[in-house]
Design brief:
CATH architecture: Alpha-Beta Complex
Structural class: alpha+beta
Strand content: 5-15%
Bound molecules: zinc ion
Distance between the termini: 32 Å
Strand order of the largest sheet: 1-2
Number of helices: 4
CATH class: Alpha Beta
Radius of gyration: 15 Å
Number of domains: 1
Largest sheet: 2 strands, antiparallel
Oligomer: single chain
Shape: globular
Number of strands: 4
């Protein structure tokens, strides 16, 4: 434990490595709109999903990008497998699509293997990649 660590930061540092297909739910405070988990680092409020994306996939490619949830679309989820950088329009397309024609294939997710994995496991109960 380092000086200045908060309980939230310790939790974040622990669960950023969680290897699971289940949602990993942020148990602490949320942003003003009550949607996304927030983390205070060096006195600045950070949005947790964006931190997860940055940690796993590198810095936000540009200001056009947001940390998008898919396939779970649970704003409190911080499972890196469910998160990726997407542009605002890609994210909006996802949301439109999900409202009309859900796509659970996981094809658009950076780790397609995961998408296939969860679907097969869900249907058959067999964990192919274990
Ligand atoms: Zn999730």
């Amino acid at each position: 434990m380092r000086y200045g660590d908060t309980e939230q930061l310790i939790w974040f540092r622990t669960h950023i490595h969680d290897e699971t297909d289940e949602c990993v739910i942020w148990p602490y405070g949320c942003t003003g709109n009550g949607k996304y988990g927030q983390l205070v680092i060096n006195g600045k409020i950070q949005t947790v999903p964006a931190w997860v994306c940055e940690f796993r996939y590198g810095p936000r490619p540009s200001k056009k990008y947001v940390a998008a949830h898919g396939p779970c679309h649970n704003p409190l989820c911080i499972n890196y497998r469910h998160l990726s950088w997407k542009t605002y329009s890609e994210n909006n397309l996802d949301m439109n699509r999900d409202g009309t024609m859900p796509d659970y294939s996981g094809k658009k997710h950076p780790s397609f293997k995961h998408g296939r994995y969860s679907r097969v496991a869900e249907i058959t109960g067999i964990d192919l990649f274990a």
